[in-house]
C-alpha cells in the first residue's frame, strides 16, 4: 500500500461542512454541563497553593533559613559561606516555578474540560458535509453530552428528522446526559443508552455518522495505557465503530495519545479519506481529530492508495 502524507497550512480547510460555533462563553457551558474529574483540578490547585506558600516563606525568612542550614548541616554549609544562601535560593526558586507550572496545568485542565470540549465538538460536527441527510448518528462514550448535544443541535438546525444516540458505560451518566439535552432544547433528538463500547449493542451498518470525543484512550485503562492488552481493546472499539457505520458514512474521533495506532487500524479496516487534524493541546497533552469514511462498497478488493490529510502532527 502506498501512503501519501500531505502537509497543509494551518488555515487549510479539510473536506467538511462549515459549522460556526455558537457564541457562548465558558460560564454558560459550565452552568449546563459542569465538570468531570473535580478531584484532579483540586489536586493541582492544592499543590499550586502549597508551593506558592513555600516559596513565599523562603522569601520572607531567607536569612533565618540560611542560618538553620548552617547550624543543622555544618559539614555541608560552612558558617558565613555562600553554599547555604545558594541552597535556600535554589529551593525557593524551584518552589515558585513549581507553583506557576501547577497553576498553568490547573487552568489548562479546567479549560479543556469545559470551553475546549465545546469548541472541539463544533469542529467534529463540521466534518460532516450534510447533516440534513443524516437519519441516525452515534456518540460513543457520550459522557456529559457536550458532543452529543452539539450533534443534536446541528440536526435541529438543518431541519433533519434524524436522531443521535449516546452510548455510555454508566446508566447514571446517561440519565444526566438526557437532562442536559433537555436544557439545551434538543431532547427530542437525543436517545441515551447504557452499553459496552467494546461490543456495541447495535446491528451492522446502522448509523450515518459515528463520533467520539476524548473517550477512546480510556478504554482498556485497567490494563495500563501503554500495554498490548489496552491497545487491543482500543482497536476493538474502532472496529465496532466501523461495523455499525453505514457504507459511505462518516466517522470522527477526537482523542489524546494513540492517534498513529488509530490511523493504522483504520487503514486495516479499509476506511477511506482518513484525515488527521492539526495538534490541539488538551489536558496538557497533544490531541487530534481523526476523520474517515466507510467505503460505499463493503468488500474492497486489494489494497488501494490511502491519502492522509496529516497536518501538524508533530
UniProtKB/TrEMBL annotation:
* Taxonomic source organism: Linum trigynum
What's in the keyword line of the UniProt record?
Membrane, Transmembrane, Transmembrane helix
Q: Where is the Methyltransferase type domain?
A: 138-251
The yes or no answer to whether the keyword Kinase is present is no
User: Which Gene3D superfamilies does the record associate with it?
Assistant: Vaccinia Virus protein VP39
Write down the superkingdom of origin: Eukaryota
Leader sequence residues? none
Q: Transmembrane segments in this chain: where?
A: 41-62, 82-111
InterPro entries of this UniProt entry? Methyltransf_11 (IPR013216), SAM-dependent_MTases_sf (IPR029063)
The name this protein carries in UniProt is Methyltransferase type 11 domain-containing protein
Q: Which GO terms describe its molecular function?
A: S-adenosylmethionine-dependent methyltransferase activity
Amino acid at each position: 500500500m502506498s501512503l501519501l502524507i500531505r502537509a497543509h497550512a494551518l488555515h487549510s480547510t479539510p473536506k467538511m461542512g462549515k459549522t460556526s460555533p455558537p457564541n457562548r462563553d465558558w460560564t454558560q457551558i459550565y452552568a449546563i454541563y459542569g465538570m468531570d474529574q473535580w478531584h484532579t483540578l483540586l489536586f493541582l490547585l492544592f499543590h499550586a497553593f502549597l508551593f506558592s506558600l513555600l516559596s513565599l516563606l523562603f522569601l520572607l525568612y531567607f536569612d533565618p533559613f540560611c542560618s538553620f542550614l548552617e547550624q543543622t548541616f555544618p559539614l555541608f554549609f560552612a558558617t558565613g559561606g555562600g553554599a547555604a544562601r545558594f541552597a535556600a535560593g535554589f529551593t525557593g526558586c524551584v518552589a515558585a516555578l513549581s507553583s506557576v507550572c501547577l497553576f498553568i496545568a490547573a487552568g489548562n485542565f479546567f479549560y479543556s474540560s469545559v470551553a475546549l470540549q465545546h469548541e472541539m465538538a463544533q469542529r467534529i460536527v463540521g466534518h460532516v458535509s450534510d447533516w440534513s441527510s443524516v437519519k441516525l448518528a452515534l456518540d460513543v462514550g457520550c459522557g456529559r453530552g457536550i458532543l452529543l448535544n452539539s450533534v443534536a443541535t446541528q440536526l435541529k438546525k438543518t431541519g433533519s428528522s434524524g436522531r443521535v444516540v449516546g452510548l455510555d458505560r454508566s446508566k447514571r451518566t446517561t440519565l444526566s446526559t438526557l437532562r442536559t439535552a433537555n436544557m439545551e432544547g434538543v431532547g427530542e433528538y437525543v436517545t441515551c443508552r447504557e452499553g459496552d463500547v467494546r461490543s456495541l449493542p447495535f446491528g451492522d451498518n446502522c448509523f450515518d455518522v459515528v463520533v467520539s470525543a476524548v473517550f477512546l484512550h480510556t478504554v482498556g485503562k485497567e490494563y495500563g495505557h501503554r500495554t498490548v492488552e489496552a491497545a487491543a481493546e482500543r482497536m476493538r472499539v474502532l472496529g465496532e465503530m466501523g461495523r455499525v457505520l453505514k457504507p459511505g458514512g462518516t466517522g470522527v474521533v477526537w482523542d489524546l495519545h494513540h492517534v498513529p495506532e488509530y490511523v493504522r487500524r483504520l487503514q486495516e479496516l479499509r476506511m477511506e479519506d482518513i484525515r488527521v487534524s492539526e495538534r490541539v493541546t488538551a489536558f496538557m497533552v497533544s490531541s487530534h481529530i481523526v476523520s474517515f469514511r466507510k467505503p460505499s462498497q463493503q468488500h474492497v478488493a486489494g489494497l488501494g492508495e490511502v491519502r492522509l490529510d496529516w497536518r501538524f502532527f508533530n
